[in-house]
Backbone:
């Protein structure tokens, strides 16, 4: 009695089912087909009985004639050769395909390495360009502040210069009035001196003292005018220096603006290159997916080849057994 509730009929059914699926009807495969029940020794015994019965049916002279047996032998030999040839051809094609895929994968991996390297370099260049752009914007802001301060200083100097110019004109006007008054006074004195020279001698002296005072006052005023003229010259020089500084700042601002435009163009170019590299990465991902599909197909092909080899091995064993039994029967 078989252990686990199995019998010869169940083993025979599992054997036929495995062969119909193209699988090798081994002891373990039959045991799995039976739901992992039964001992291996019992299954092996039933398999041996089934194979002996199959051999007995094929060797029965009433069922198979001698020409058929010879034909079966030749067919088995031809089948074995053709099967082996197809297996070798399929194996060769499979190896060539695998080698081609391997080379392609290696090339794609090298391309991906180069793409990643280029992406890293472009990202670094983009960061540098953005940093330069920020520095340029900061420098431009500082120059604008300096320019505004220079304009304010220039306006203050212009106002001070206008004020000094007004003071100079006012002093010149006073000096002209003093000179006209003194000329008038001299003329008056000359007219009176002819008439009252001795009578007004003391008054003349007094007038002369007043003239000295006026002359001193005129000298002081002339000194003030001279100082104002010097201040005017100094302010004009300072104004010129400020105007030069403003011109220099405008030139630097123009230079920075051009540099900013150049960096902006470089940043746009790097963004375009980054878009192209992103497209290449997407293409590589597609190829990588294709490779995974090919690997899956390779695994399925390996399983199919294994099934074919198992089937051919079973049929070859059966043919060899038939030929051996045939040879024994002839003896």
Residues:
């Amino acid at each position: 009695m078989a252990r686990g509730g199995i019998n010869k009929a169940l083993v025979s059914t599992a054997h036929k089912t495995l062969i119909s699926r193209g699988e090798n009807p081994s002891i373990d495969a039959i045991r799995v087909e039976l739901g992992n029940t039964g001992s291996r020794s019992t299954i092996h015994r039933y398999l041996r009985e089934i194979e002996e019965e199959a051999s007995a049916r094929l060797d029965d002279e009433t069922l198979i004639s001698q020409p058929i047996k010879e034909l079966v032998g030749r067919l088995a030999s031809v089948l074995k050769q053709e099967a082996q040839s197809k297996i070798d051809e399929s194996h060769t094609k499979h190896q060539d395909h695998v080698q081609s895929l391997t080379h392609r994968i290696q090339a794609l991996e090298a391309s991906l390495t180069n793409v990643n390297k280029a992406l890293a370099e472009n990202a670094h260049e983009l960061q540098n360009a953005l940093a330069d752009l920020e520095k340029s914007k900061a420098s431009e802001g500082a120059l604008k502040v300096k320019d505004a301060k220079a304009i304010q200083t220039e306006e203050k100097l212009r106002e001070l210069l206008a004020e000094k110019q007004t003071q100079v004109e006012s002093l010149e006007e006073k000096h002209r009035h003093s000179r006209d008054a003194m000329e008038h006074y001299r003329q008056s004195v000359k007219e009176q001196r002819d008439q009252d020279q001795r009578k007004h001698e003391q008054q003349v002296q007094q007038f002369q003292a007043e003239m000295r005072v006026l002359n001193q006052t005129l000298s002081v005023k002339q000194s003030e005018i001279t100082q104002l003229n010097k201040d005017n010259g100094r302010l004009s020089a300072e104004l010129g220096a400020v105007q030069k500084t403003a011109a220099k700042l405008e030139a630097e601002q123009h230079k920075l603006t051009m540099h900013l435009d150049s960096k902006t163009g470089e940043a746009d170019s790097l963004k375009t290159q980054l878009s192209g590299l992103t497209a290449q990465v997407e293409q590589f991902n597609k190829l990588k997916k294709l490779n995974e599909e090919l690997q899956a197909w390779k695994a399925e092909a390996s399983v199919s080849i294994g099934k074919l080899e198992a089937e051919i091995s079973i049929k070859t064993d059966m043919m060899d057994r038939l030929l051996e039994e045939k040879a024994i029967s002839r003896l």
